[in-house]
Amino acid sequence: MDGRSPGPWARVVATFAEARRGLGAVLTLRPYDTSTAEGRAQERYRRAALSTATAALGHGLGIFTGLVNVRVTLGYLGKERYGLWMAISSLLLWVQLADFGLGRGLQNHLAEAHGKDDREGAARAFSTGFFALLAVAVVMFLAFVPALFLVPWNRVLAVSNPSLASETRVAVGAVAAVFLAQFPLSLVPTLYSAHQRGYVANLFNIGSSVVSLVTLLLVVKLKLSLGYLILAVGGVGVVSNLVNLAYILHDMPWLRPRLSLVSRGVARALASTSSAMMLFQLAGLLINEAQVLIVAHRIDLLAVTDWSILMRVYALPITFIAMLDGPMVPAFREAYVRGDRGWLRSAFFRLVRLKMGLALAGVLLYVVFGDLIAALFAGRAVQLSASVWWSTGLLLFVGVWNGSFNDLLIATDRLWALVAAVAGNALVTIVLTITMARSFGLVGVLLATVAFSLFVTAWLNPLLCRLALRVTPSDAKAEDPEPT
Asked: How far is CA 44 from CA 22, 184, 198, 311, 329, in A?
């Protein structure tokens, strides 16, 4: 023993070993006693582990059913009808912002009420949020009904095939009907997440995926039209969310939405949180959508295809890392509200070390197997330069680091600082992408994307989180135990 402290790589390896030792203990259906700090710590880990495990199972099944869905639907509808469905669905991408970030904002309020054991506060928050989205859905419905008949949808969607033109309006109506029905129900996953029961929602999603696939096969066998196919497949999701809502309200009856619980004060508090989350989502969407257009104009359309495939490969490690993130954010919020700062600090840095280890593995995945994976997505040989894959790895590594502190800023209600950082990131990324894309190609686009995160938020976000992670001597007594 030379007395030297372990290096960063040794700490990452130790974190993986620690996670492996504790996994068997926390993957249990038996809850821990939450009347003590140690019991609450173990229960948070238990629920997070169950949520991650069921999310991984659901994601694996989702990949399989997604591939089958695309093959079956594309084979049944043909490229034109399938393309029409996708085009209509893409129009609703921006309409989803009409929830004003309420889902993510409500999660913080529900998790805070959970941390304070405040059932009335949770009921008021959910009732206010639910009826707010229901009112928005009604307004959108009243606006959409005349638009369905007055807007020249064939022209908007560039439909020139006469046989397809007759189906366009029906298809638009079917997609809109499913969207509006799902709109207020979009808060259902938030209920589970805020109460750290994401594993239950994941099990419902797994069942919904299977039923949706069976429904699709039945529709194809009956040879129903595009409109009926959209209603049938989309209707499975609506019914699943209704059953999901009924289940959690049976388990937590105090959350049942009631107009009498709608509160202006709660609405103002939700609006303050949700507006910040909406701007956060909007900035992210702006970056993604703007970069595609910039690549097309500053390079060419072939580069857009390469960029699209590259982003699919980039998203693979992100998907699995997000399975760890999702269950922990409401747990961080609940611990922060309860004052369990010892657990919050140690659990947060334990999670960061684990995620950075996965990010390193992701970098190696890109560099060694990037072209091979890209070829699987593209259905043809792909050869991107090593500098592209190394730049993608840098984007992943810095993104995971920054994303970890973004989650903590959300959990501790430092939302406007986060919005300011994301807005600055959006502005710098777009300007640098325009400047660098033509000269440096996709490498320039990747470096433009990572620049602000690397040189600004990589140190600014940890600085903003210092106060939330500060542990007093009394907090140290409740330091987070290892999962045992």
From this structure: 13, 28, 12, 33, 11
